[in-house]
Amino acid sequence: MRWQQISVALLLLALLAVPASAQGVKYLYGNPELSATIAGTNQFAPGAETALTVNIANSGVNTIKMVGSTIVTPDDQPSTAKLATAALKSEGTPFTVKTDPQFLSDITGGASRAATFNVKVADSAEPGTYVLPLEVTYTYLQDAEDLGDTLRYNYQKKTATLPLTVRVTPDLRVEVLDVRSESLNVGTEGYVSMTLKNVGSDSAQNAIAKIARNGASPLIPTDGNAYLGTFEPGETVDVRFKVSVADTAEPQSYPLDVSIAYEDYEGKAVTSRATTIGIPVGGKIAFEVVSPKATLYQGQKSILEVVYRNAGAATVYNAQARISAVDPFTSSDDTAYLGDLAPGETATARFEVNVDGAGTLKEYGIDSEIRYRDNLDNSKISDTMKVRVALEQRQGTIFTNPVFLVAVLAVIIGAGYYIFVYRKKRR
Questions:
Q1: Where are the transmembrane segments (predicted)?
Q2: Is 0.70 topped by the overall pTM?
Q3: Architecture of domain 174-280
Q4: What is the pLDDT of residues 214-264, one digit of tens each?
Q5: Which residues contact 232 (CB under 8 A, 6 or more apart)?
C-alpha cells in the first residue's frame, strides 16, 4: 500500500514539472536576404522568344535567439519573405517581357522559389550584355511585441531589385531584297532567283543559302542549296534555285522559306531563322483542239486535219501531236510534228486514217495528246483531248466517187495525149 502511494506521488510531481520545462523561442534579429539567378543559359539571339526561368533564393538568417519559459514563440521568423511576388522589368533593353508578375508565396531562410517569364528579344537587338531588373516584393516580420499572453506582430513591406545579366549574341539575319521567277508554271519546273542581304551582326563562314518548302505549299525545291562562302554583315549576294510546282497548284503566289546555314563566331554550325517570301506561279501549260468537227466516210482512207492551240501561259518546244485511233478507225501515221508554240499560237496536224466499212454512223471522240519540252528541256505530256469526228456514208454512185473520177480523168488525159502524138507522126 505504501509503494502505491509513493508511485502516485511521483506521477503527480512529473505532471507538475511539465509546464516548468516548456520553452518559448524568439528571434531578435534577422531579415530576408534575396538573390536571383537564371536557370540555364543567359545568352539569346536577336529575334528569339524563350521561357526565362529565374530562381529566387533567400539566404537570410536569424542571428540572435532567445529561449525562455515565459516567451511566446511567434508564428513567423524575421528572415522569412512572406507573400513574395516577382516582376521582371526590361526598360531600356531590347527585351520584351510578356508575362505578368508571378506569385511565389513564402520564402523561408535557406529556401528558394522559381518564376518563369516569357521573353522576346527584338530582331534589331545589338550584340552585348544587358541587365534585366527583377523586382521582388514581400513582407517580413520586423518584430513581435510580447503583451504577456499575446503577441503583436509588426510587418514591413519591401521591394528588392535583383539584377539579372543577359547577353545578346551576334547572329546572321537574311533579308530578301529581290525575287525573280523563270518559267515557273503549274506542273512544271523553273528557276527562282533572289538577292539576299546579311542584315545581322555575325560574319558567317562557309555560308550556304537554302530554300525549303513551306508547309503544304506546292513549291518544292529540286536544287535548293547555293554556296556563298564568307557572308559579311551588310553584304548582298545573288543566288538561283530550281523549283518544281505541283500539278494541283493554281496561278498565284505561294510561300517559300529562305535561310542561311553557316559557322558562327564561335565556329559552331548554326542556321539562321527562316524568312518566308512569296513566289508567283504562272498558269498550267495546256492545249485545246480548235478545229471544227471533221467528217470521215465508211470504208475510205482519209486525211484527218486537227488544229491545236497553246492555251497555256508558257512557250512549248518541239511539240508533237498524237492520236489514239480505235475501232472503227486505224492509222499507220498517228503522230504529227507541231514545232514550237508560244501562248495563243496554233498549229495544224495531219493524220492518215483508215475507216472500217462496217463502222457505225455516228459522232466519235478520238483521244489526242501532245508531247513537248518545257523551257528547262524537260519532256512533258499534255492532258488528253478529244478530236470530234463524224462518220458518214458517202452519197452517190461510183461515178460520183472522187477516186473513180480521178482515175477516169487520168485515162482521158492519157488517151488525148496518145491521139495527139499519133496524129502528129502521121503528118
A1: 403-422
A2: no
A3: Sandwich (2.60)
A4: 999 999 999 999 999 999 999 999 999 999 999 899 999 999 999 999 999
A5: 198, 203, 204
